[in-house]
Amino acid sequence: MKNRYYELTITLNEQYVDLIADFIMNIYDEGVEFGTDRIIIRSESDLTFVKDALLSLQQDLESDIHMDFTLKEKENIDWIKTYQESIQPIEAGKFYIFPSWHAPKENLINIRIDPALAFGSGHHATTFSCLEAISDYIKPSDHIIDVGCGSGILGLACKKLGATVELCDTDPISVQSCKENFRLNEESYDKLWEGSADKAEGKYDVVIANIIADVLRFIATDLKKVTKKDGFLILSGILDKKEKLVQDSFGDLVLEKRILKDEWVTLIYRKK
Ligand SMILES: C[S@@+](CC[C@H](N)C(=O)[O-])C[C@H]1O[C@@H](n2cnc3c(N)ncnc32)[C@H](O)[C@@H]1O
């Protein structure tokens, strides 16, 4: 891609737009945009030849077609590069989350996630706090479930710490994205399904659910049921104004830790 491009604007009477457009398309057919009283052509090559051809057409026709020309040289923006530069890697707890176009980092546990349709790039406060909690709470011997896995980032983090990992999500796009991210990171999960915690068959040392407060309340019984005695629940996605409601639903457990980041709360419970 060149650093600059040319933009030729031809302003003319509306009734001649089609006629001149046909002529232009015969000599140049890339990057042509039509308006009611103007035609704009963009190219990385100099467009003076199009302007000259139109001037000589005007003379040959000896008609009253009047055209004004503006030929400008403009800066070319590499939108892909600009977009990629806007997605920066992050460090959360023991983890370094980075997109493919960045290099991994030494001395941290690397997780490669490319932005996609599923939630979970690590940039949101809820995912970030969960990654911190995972850094502190997950042991290699743990069997965990990531309920509402999105991109699979939290399950991947647990897998990288040596845990046995199951994941689920009610959204099929998330399930697909989770599969792709495990493949991208050359890791394998132990189980993955479309659906929620009610379809889980086992009991887990740690249950992780970063879902909004109302859903956490709705599936509270299932989340508690699949947690082993003395196991932990890492609950996130809770807006501070909804925290009390979630605490009410999980009041029969022991609240071990509370993390607040921006207006998002993460609660870590232990089942008695
Ligand atoms: C905020 S995202 C979290 C994604 C990822 N775990 C993270 O921490 O970045 C919440 C995910 O939960 C899923 N979800 C919503 N309701 C659910 C439910 N009842 N059971 C399982 N997953 C659910 C959504 O489809 C979404 O992918």
From TrEMBL:
It is an enzyme of class 2 (transferase). It comes from the Bacteria. It holds the Pfam family PrmA. Methylates ribosomal protein L11. The gene is prmA. Gene3D superfamilies: Vaccinia Virus protein VP39. GO terms for cellular component: cytoplasm; ribosome. It comes from Sulfurovum indicum. GO terms for biological process: methylation. The keyword S-adenosyl-L-methionine applies. This is Ribosomal protein L11 methyltransferase. It is found in: Cytoplasm.
